[in-house]
Amino acid sequence: MKYMLMICTDESGLEALSPEEGAAVLAEYGAFWEEMTGRGVLVGGERLRPTSDATSVRVREGETLTFDGPFAETKEQVGGYYLVDCKDLDEAIEIAAKIPGARLGTIEVRPIWPM
Amino acid sequence: MTPDVEAVVASAFRDEWARVLAALIRTTGDWDLAEECAQEAFAQALVKWRRSGVPRKPGAWLTTTARNRAVDGLRRTRTGVSKLEELALLFPPEGTGAFEDSGITDDRLRLIFTCCHPALSFEARVALTLRALSGLTTGEIARAFLVPEATMAQRLVRAKRKIRNAHIPYRVPPGHLLPERTSAILFVVYLLFNEGYSATAGDDLIRVGLSEEAIRLARLIAELMPDEPEVLGLLALLLLTDARRLARVDTRGDLVPLEEQDRSLWDQDQIAEGRRLLEAALRRRQPGPYQVQAAISACHDAAGDAASTDWVEIAALYGELLKMVRSPVIELNHAVAVSMAQGPEKGLRAIDVIVARGELEGHHLLHATRADLLRRLGRNDEAAASYCRALLSATNGPERRYLARRLAEATSAR
Q: Which residue, among B177, B144, B217, has the nearest Cα to B168 in the 3D structure?
């Protein structure tokens, strides 16, 4: 069963970190990656550039419309994701709780819709 | 021949519905199909039992009938066939116990844990529990929660969809999750009881039935998890509280405060059962909030009249409870107990601490309690003002009548 774990945090909070704090967080993510790779549940995952670098695209009446910024202005934004393949929702929740971002923001757990 | 098959089926429904459904969900992995087939099995029972008599083991008959229907239904579709093959692999014949995470085998336990999974909204947990475990119809649940039937149906559909799509496991959680998940199911039952109990004096009998349902569920959970002290504590709490139900309202349907209740109306058998359960729980020496609340209720039940209530003990128990659960409502109850043990002056001081924090502002009990203490201190003007504020936020009819009566008394005593 595949799940997307979306790491939703307040970007401004991350920017406010000192270089040492930032390095510490990165190290935690490194450890998480190692642990989950070892467990064999990790399918993929990436960190995303902040929403200030985001472009939103819509097609209306055949015309492509582009906007600067994220699709919705919210306090927390998706800053990265992991794709995991695990047993059930309980395991997905357990993995999500180990993502360092879970302590600062929210991890949204979304089951992948098999097509 | 059986004279009244309908009554037999109705009673089998009460006793066996959850068991039949729980077994079917495990074997088919499909909640809707399981529900449909369980319902059909009960419908068939009405016909067949009338014709050929009630089987020796009605529960087994119902489960087998429902399971056969499910297998027939699955065979008819192509996806069903592959599902059946998959199921044969997934679920070996009963009794092998290969899938037991916690060594507990009853399917109904899996059902309860799944219905009360924390990934479901709280409303969904309550609705699913009543549908799956208690066998209430969607219409009955909707009426109990005062929402349109279509809303409740939608809520149940959504919950079942999430269980399926998000793969909420159908199991008793493993040891490390068990305490957290157990308190989640106990909380559902506790709130269900309160929904019904606070409506005891209300105008809707269906809501009152929720308390009975909660007690049945608590009994079931206690039967399935007899070694969990908090499970026993909750059942004890519900029994010890519900024992006073008849005395709680007068003939006009008005609320009677504990101190004015006719204690001969209290159900002594139920109190005795509650005390036995509480003692069994306490012997395990793992105290928890439900056990402490049950102990408080037992203190009230033990007093032959209001004056002999052991308020010192009750105040101490509320103090213990506050250490386990920080909640302004418990703080309020603690303040009441303190006022009874050490005088209204002390109690009022404790309540004003809550008022100063601005908590429970819209809660009628805060103002009603404050008003009662002021009345006892003879400060009738302030008491009247507090009764007014309490009336502004009280919604339950009998409670409002009680407050209005006190307001009139305080006003005339000025």
A: B177
